[in-house]
Design goal:
Layout lengths: L1 E2 L10 H9 L11 H14 L3 E5 L2 H12 L4 E6 L3 H4 L4 H6 L2 E5 L9 H7 L9 E8 L9 H14 L2 E6 L2 H8 L3 H5 L4 E5 L10 E5 L1 H13 L8 H13 L4 H15 L5 E7 L2 E6 L4 H10 L2 E2 L6 E4 L6 H18 L1
Parallel strand pairs: 1-11, 3-4, 3-5, 5-6, 6-7
Antiparallel strand pairs: 2-8, 7-8, 9-10, 10-12
The site of pyridoxal-5'-phosphate has 11 residues, from helix 3.
Length: 336
């Protein structure tokens, strides 16, 4: 089976499975798990930050960032398309008593800083206290321009806001730009990183920040039930995600470009966007459920919709792309 639905489907490598089996572990709630501690140190160092926290998921890491930056009655500014607004169950409001103030994303995924400025609430008892600006990189596969990151940082500093990055796929951005993680991270007060997407670890994310922020987040992680015990079993795979999987992301980007090129030859398919490891396409076929069923019968899992997202990752090589494209060609021939 070739699974194009997401890079979350990646299987851990053999090296990860071996490292997990052999990991030295302890009770991480006591701070005693050497493998978790090593992963957190490794991530902090790569990002150029003081500290990091291993979390169960990216959703948890983002929520902890919001809860560590903001108090009850504060608000964060973010995009309408932001994962930590739209796709995380309203956790900041539900569990953190933090109000989101979403703004339309620009076509490139950024937030217009003029509009952000207009959304900052005055210091007045009528309003929530605007505390934080949250960006996402990559967003829908797109890389935020490096110059924009610097502008956003200067803006946040001038306005007295903290700046968070949802960097679930920040390594895709770094690899696409040919820069280190720290070159991106230096513009932010905190960032989250998913280990379990293109980096192929089975479980886990990281929140990176300064000592004080991570100390607060560590407390909230325990409150939220996210204090894990011998979590080094998972962190061992996370270490290899950071050391062995980052550069490989360039292949996913190449394969995404290759897929977009191949799709361009199909009459009923329009490629709307290709960036980093994602291709978005629309299918003009009358019967989309039949298309999805045909692709599945040919071994390709695709969430076919009005706008279909195809995600490249470690477990999809050029052969997988060829199989998908061949199946689409057959469907076009048989269904006009
Ligand atoms: C996947 C994702 C998350 C959340 O990660 P989970 O581990 O699925 O909870 C957060 N932000 C972005 C941009 C993501 O793509």
């Amino acid at each position: 089976m070739f699974d194009f639905r997401s890079d979350t489907v990646t299987q851990p490598t053999e090296a990860m499975r071996r490292a997990m089996a052999q990991a030295e572990v302890g009770d991480d709630v006591y701070g005693d798990d050497p493998t978790v501690n090593a992963l957190e140190e490794q991530a902090a160092e790569m990002a150029g930050f003081e500290a990091a926290l291993f979390t169960a998921s990216g959703t948890q890491a983002n929520l902890l960032a919001l809860m560590a930056h903001c108090e009850r009655g504060d608000e964060y500014l973010c995009g309408q398309q932001a994962h930590n607004y739209k796709f995380e169950g309203g956790g900041a409001a539900v569990l953190g008593s933090i109000q989101p103030q979403p703004l339309d994303n620009e076509a490139d995924g950024s937030l217009c800083l003029k509009r952000v400025e207009a959304a900052i609430k005055p210091d007045d008892i009528h309003f929530a206290r605007t505390r934080l600006l949250s960006l996402e990189n990559t967003i829908g596969g797109k890389v935020l321009p490096m110059s924009y990151l610097a502008d956003a940082q200067a803006f946040a500093f001038e306005k007295g806001l903290k700046l968070h990055l949802d960097g679930a796929r920040v390594f895709n951005a770094a690899v696409a730009e040919g820069v280190s993680l720290s070159a991106i991270a230096q513009h932010f007060d905190s960032l989250t990183i998913c280990l379990s997407k293109g980096l192929a670890a089975p479980v886990g994310s990281l929140l990176v920040g300064d000592e004080a922020l991570i100390k607060k987040a560590r407390r909230w992680r325990k409150v939220l039930g996210g204090g894990m015990r011998q979590a080094g079993i998972l962190a061992a795979a996370g270490q290899l995600a950071l050391t062995e999987q980052v550069e490989r992301l360039a292949q996913d980007h190449d394969n995404a470009r290759y897929l977009a090129e191949q799709l361009a030859a199909l009459k009923q398919v329009e490629v709307n966007q290709c960036a980093t490891n994602m291709v978005f396409a629309s299918f003009a076929h009358a019967n989309l459920p039949a298309l999805q069923a045909q692709l599945l019968a040919d071994g390709c899992k695709v969430s076919v919709g009005a706008k279909t997202r195809l995600v490249l990752h470690k477990d999809l090589d050029r052969g997988a792309v060829d199989a998908l494209v061949a199946s689409l060609h057959r469907f076009e021939q048989e269904n006009g």
